[in-house]
Amino acid sequence: MHATISAQTLLTRELLARRRPGYSLEAPFYLSESILAADMEHIFGKHWIFVAVEPQIPEAGDYITVDFGNNSILIVRDDDMQVKAFHNVCRHRGSRLCASQRGSVGNIVCPYHQWTYDLSGKLLHAKHMGDDFDPSTSGLKAVHVRSLGGLIFICLAENPPEDFEHMAQEMTPYIAPHRLADCKVAAQVDIIEDCNWKLTMENNRECYHCVSNHPELTISLYEYGFGYKPDAQNAAGLQRFKDVTAANHARWESMGLPSAEIDTLDDRVTGFRTQRLPIDRAGQSQTMNTEVASKKLLADFVDPALGGLSFWTQPNSWHHFMSDHIVSFSVLPISAGKTLVRTTWCVHKDAVEGVDYTVDNLTAVWNATNAQDRRLVEESQIGVANGAYEPGPYSPFTEGLVEKFCNWYVGRMRELTR
């Protein structure tokens, strides 16, 4: 007997089938709670999701919790200093184990009936359960977890995409020199955007809007790195940017810092893109004066002008690695019209606040940019809900990465909902 296909699944398939390449998505992709449920099942439930950085759990027993959809995930550093991930659910009667976003424990103790687990998820104590109870069958449910150069990814699927290994092999040489494991978290800011998570990601994947909306961010970005129509008016600026990038790539590569673009955003299950790009003016960091935010450089760097290594992953993150600090962004859906954007700034673990850096200076550019982007995506959500909305065309010169995000999303949803 064939399983009954719901009307919503049929509608989702129809919307996916008629998606017009080079155009934004139809309104239900941003508005429908049913499609958000499908996103949670097929995108956030079956792919590698970026959730944290290792400096958030520096010591054995340190933990964080990550919530998205109906899922709560507990990420902990065990006694062997390995990163573990579990569903944040007691195996007794389902109580949430850890309510705080972060903390430190010796063992994991359920607050309800004190079932106690070690940091490997093994059930240690469960009182009054009788002689026939086998504690070995009631350990915490593990979640697949991988650290890529200190960036923590999880996958809820029973069989996660195997091509994470390809990304790790290609990206480790880029990320490893920055030694994220030797960093500490200097600041973390959560904001809630009143929009669909896909609008947040689409906004990130282009800088068509940057000159008009991000005066703090564009101080450090070469204008012609945003993407421009290659006409006579822009030819000189575009060529200068290419020349500056090529010269810096040669210099950085000679220092053992891979810099060339890798782009697999829409042709792999675990899609990603990376490139090290020059920073304008002083050329050191994404700050208001483009000089380093922390005088204590990362790793053993001595040259502060190492550009910005950008790393984008599907479906929910982007990162910038510089000589003095690292900033990471995680996007997690709350509902069809609400999205959590979590920004984390890391500096060298020996950097001293108030001496080597100030949090205000470190975070100024991206706090301003995040606030501006929040306004933009919330206006987009309002506009998409208007009955006059219809998918509009992407610029082939400035919105190519938006198209790749949508291609990836539509392709994965088609594959997983057929």
Automatic annotation (TrEMBL):
All residue ranges annotated as the Rieske domain in the record: 48-154
PROSITE patterns xref list: RIESKE
Source organism, top-level taxon: Bacteria
SUPFAM superfamilies on file: Bet v1-like (SSF55961), ISP domain (SSF50022)
Gene3D superfamilies: Naphthalene 1,2-dioxygenase Alpha Subunit, Chain A, domain 1, Rieske [2Fe-2S] iron-sulphur domain
Protein family: Belongs to the bacterial ring-hydroxylating dioxygenase alpha subunit family.
CDD domains per UniProt: RHO_alpha_C_GbcA-like, Rieske_RO_Alpha_N
Originating species: Rhodoferax saidenbachensis
InterPro entries the record matches: Rieske_2Fe-2S, Rieske_2Fe-2S_sf, Ring_hydroxy_dOase_asu_C_dom, Rng_hydr_dOase-A
Cofactor: Fe cation
This protein's record includes keyword Iron: yes
KW Ligase (keyword) present: no
Keywords annotated in UniProt: 2Fe-2S, Iron, Iron-sulfur, Metal-binding, Oxidoreductase
Protein name stated in the entry: Rieske 2Fe-2S family protein
